[in-house]
Amino acid sequence: MNxxxxxxxxxxxxxxxxxxxxxxxxxISRQNIxxxxxxxxxxxxxxxxxxxxxxxxxxxxxxx
Length: 64
Hints:
The protein is an all-alpha fold.
């Protein structure tokens, strides 16, 4: 699944969160979050965890 790194970074900034904060919210390591953002891809289940940690729908972080 393609993930928008820009959208994730924007959501983090809007919420005043760091990748470490997001890691704590969604149960994914900070290193893995950094890798996902850099690559722009992840498994659908992981996208669900990221979206939940950010308080948005998966479609809000997907690359279109």
